[in-house]
Amino acid sequence: MIPYGHQSISQSDIDAVTAVLTSDYLTQGSQVPMFESAVATVTRAEYAVAGNSATSMLHVACLALGVLQQDIVWTSPITFVASANCALYCGAKVDFVDVDPLTGNMCAIALANKLQESKKQGCLPKVIIPVHLCGHSCNMDVIGALAKQYGVRVIEDASHAIGGQYQDQYIGQCQYSDITVFSFHPVKIITTAEGGVATTNCAELAKAMVLYRSHGVTRDKDMMLRPDEGDWYYEQHFLGFNYRMTDLQAALGNSQIMRLDEFVAKRNQLARRYHFLLKDTGVEFVSPLDNTLSAYHLMMILLPENIARKVVFDAMRAAGICVHVHYFPVHLQPYYLNLGFAEHDFPQAEHFYRHCLTLPLYPDLSDEQLVFITETLKGLL
Ligand SMILES: *Cc1c(COP(=O)(O)O)cnc(C)c1O
């Protein structure tokens, strides 16, 4: 079976993890701060805070921005459930902004209209979470300007997008957002097995995320609220979590991040091959905006209206090609239907979902495999 995504693990990756395993610290050693600084370097952000998953860091990002029970958070319906769940963890309400029909990313026009409407009704969101689907950046200058105009904070869910660029900015640089979150799950661009990082340029937000990641506990002498009791003393200031990344994970990340540019270049090269081999077949490509570099986490196409996606999907799987569908719209998940969402709430997202198909894309995918995939698909169309 050709998977839809797969990690690329080198001997250096294995050696890096093994070295930690035989060292004194399996967690809370030097690897995590090194990984944080490596992510800050590649994204050009001031601060990077590592945790045990992107899901955890999305939660911590919401907490740092002060998302509370009465607040509202908006995200895209075409995403993994974590982009929405993070707000529910804070007790906030979630709503969605419909997507652009071609990119599947949060539609800037739909966002503008929804902001205007909700301002009238006095129910503006506290935070919006655009998602860079496939690694293709959202229209961040427009989203950022709207957020500023309405006093809304922005968290970029860049789980798919490390190593990408938007105009002359690196994804994670936070030019148009407060915080950007990356995932290092094995199918993503680089991996720590499980893991996530949040970047920001705001010292206060970085400090808050560090505390929320680690029980709300500090050992920083300058932050103590009570008199110091001695070297063993630490203080808990609010209710945090154990969302820490281990040094084993960070060592893998430190080794993987050295190949980030190579991975992104290879993914783009394979994407161009797909475009070339599938042109004139009637499929639409879910493509990055001009003036961006996509990390190309996913190779996504939209099948023509008259093609039954399930038939193509099942036949590709039967041929040993693990195509996938990203994503079943979050608002149609049974849990979200129970919260009051319904079919037809976000028609563009539902239409996108019905026609999208994810083809295999990962650095070690061979050209023979890629040709086999495109020939099989062409035969079915
Ligand atoms: C993978 C993913 C997440 C969650 O990442 P984890 O590191 O697995 O928690 C969140 N949002 C999007 C868009 C993702 O693809």
Automatic annotation (TrEMBL):
EC assignment: 2.6.1.92
Pfam families: DegT_DnrJ_EryC1
Gene Ontology molecular function terms on file: transaminase activity
Taxonomy, superkingdom: Bacteria
SUPFAM superfamilies cross-referenced by the UniProt entry: PLP-dependent transferases (SSF53383)
InterPro entries: DegT/StrS_aminotransferase, PseC, PyrdxlP-dep_Trfase, PyrdxlP-dep_Trfase_major, PyrdxlP-dep_Trfase_small
Record key words, sorted: Aminotransferase, Pyridoxal phosphate, Transferase
Family indicated by similarity: Belongs to the DegT/DnrJ/EryC1 family.
The protein, known as: UDP-4-amino-4, 6-dideoxy-N-acetyl-beta-L-altrosamine transaminase
Gene (name only): pseC
